Each structure stands twice: as C-alpha cells, then as structure tokens.
Amino acid sequence: MAGAAVLLCALPFYLGAFWLQVGLFSMAAALGAVGLTLLTGTAGQLSLGHAFFLAVGAYGYVWLAGEPGPGLPPLLALVLAVCLSGLVGGLFSPVAGRVRGVYLGVATLALVFLGHHVMLNADSVTGGFNGRSVPPMSLGGFTFTATDPQLTVLGVPFGAEERLWYLALILLAVGWFAARNLLNGRPGLALTALRDSETAAAVMGVPVARRRSAAFVVSSMYAGLAGVLLALVFRRIVPDYFGLTLSIDYLAMIVIGGLGSVAGAAGGAVFVTALPLLMARYADQLPLVAAPGAAGHAVGPTEASRYLYGAAIVLVLLFAPDGLSGVARRAGAAVRRRRTAPPRTASTDAASPASASPTSASPASASPAASTPAASASDQRPKERTS
Fold this sequence. Notes:
By secondary structure, the protein is mainly alpha-helical. It is built from 16 helices and six strands. Helix 2 runs antiparallel to helix 10 (208-234) and helix 2 crosses helix 11.
C-alpha cells in the first residue's frame, strides 16, 4: 500500500490534464461506491437513490460557499455539506429502518425524482435548469485553481487538476480507512449478521432498525462527500447529471467490484467511470464506435461503454459472483501457495515410486497377519481330542 500511495502521488508529474480528470472522476466515484457497498453489500439494503444524496452534497457545498448563499469558507462548506447529506439521510432513515428489499429500492427511487423536481424549481439555491458555478476550494489562502497562486513543483506547473488530485487522494484515503475500520469492527459484524439473517441478528442482540438507519446515514454522508468532489472537478453542476442513470451506474460499480468489499467498490468505480471517457477519447480508433455527436444511428462511446459494463455485470454474476475483489483474492492465494510449496527434487521424485510400491516392504516390518497361508491354515485347524 505504501508503494501504491507513492505511485499515486507521483502521477501528476507525468500525466496530462485528460488523464488527471479521469483519475479525479474515478476517485470521486470510488468514494460514493464505498458508501453504497456499506449499505447494499454489507447491510443488504437496496438503494436506488444514491444520486439524490450526491446532489445534496454538491448543491449544499455550492450554496454554502457561494453567492447567493452564506458565503462560508470552502472547507467549512465541505464539512457542512457532508453533514447535510447525513441529515437528509437521517430524515429518511425511519423508512430505511422498517422497509427492506425491493420496497426500499422503490422508496429510494422516489427520492431521485423528487430531488430532480426540487433542483429544477429552486432557482435561488440550485440555479434551475442551467445550474450553478462551483466556488473553488481554498485552504489558508491557497486556492485549488490554475492561477491563484502560480505554482511550479520540480519544473511541472501545477494547475487545478494537479492540485485537486492531492485533495481527492486525501479524501479517498480518509474514506477508505474509515470504511475498513467500520467493517472490521463491531458495527461491521452487526451489519453482516443483519444481512445474512435478521432473525439471528435480533436473537444475538443486534438492534435491527437502528443499525439499518445508521448504515443509511453513513452511506448518505459518503455520497455527499463524493458529490462535493464531483462539483469541484466539474466546476459547474446541472440537475440533469444527478438522475436515475447515475444511481444505476453506482449499483453497477459495486456489483462488478464485489458486494461488501471496499477495494472492490473502488475498482468497480474506476472501471465504470473511466470506460466511457476513454471510449470517447479513442472513438475514432475503435471499431463499431462512432465519434460523439456523429449523425445517423451509429453507436456512440457512451452507449458502447454501457453495453460493455452491462456485459461485464452478466459475466460477473455467472462466473465470479464475488466480483473483481474475489478474483483478485483467489489469484493472490494461488500465488502465495506456489511460493510456499516445497520444491520438488530429483531424489524425492526417484524415491516416491519405491516407497509407494507394495513389494518394497521388508519382512521385519510385515504384520503377523501377513504370514504364509499354510501357517495360517494350521493355526485355524482345530486340535484332535485324545482318549
């Protein structure tokens, strides 16, 4: 993990703006996917309203840090936007604590349509159909923009993408380790027991409704943090982005990555997020894929990417139900077994057939039952009685 951290920190010195944007979108999606896998993969609650809580975080930050709005410091606005997402999730948590399965999915689906209606009509907060510009993040006078102030590190000019890269890394690391500690502690064990059997969990003393509500609140806060990071990368947000399609994308992320796995959720987020961006960039070099905006009924990069990760979902469900994380875990276990297996030598191979041969046993080691047939027959013949 130390090597991976060093590699991620060094990437802005070698990658261009496009690749940094792909990484930023992937890290924002990874934060939201980790929150959803805590809810769906660990607690077993189906949610189709994840996009709504991303919108709450994004618009909450824009309104709290911008004008019109209170104009708070951006860092404080970020923290309050995440808390606002958790508060909205807490208001919905009584429903999440008593409804489960498909019924909870339908209930959360209503949040997406309700939120879209509010975003279109609350012009003073959201800007309506045209959206709002996102105030840049700033810490102690240092702004995460391209020019304020000018910054050059080791001969590489640091613009907005390079500066946001390290902010996203910090947020992802905090969210990652918080989720890992949650899963490895008593709350994670309680959520896993709740997913496997509610009756057994209740018998063991797990408060079912309260744990469900808590999982929904934590997932909402992760979604709010992902929404804030997405807003900072986009620099302008519009209501149409936070629709049902985004919620479906997040479900695809955690299914492909592996339900209940933090690393799997991050891997699935990278796959689902980066695939359409890469296909849009290299559409003119890919067969059967038309460039964005091409006339006719050609398949565009967005549609082609959805077909591909739809096929990936089918393959995962058929051949690897535990997702990419399970495949990686089995591959690592196979490599470790090969490394720890004792080496085979020529003397061992030559001795193994002889030791396995039934004729190689010495007479001294033979059991008493292996005596000659005549002796065994004489032992079994009854003695004659004499007068």
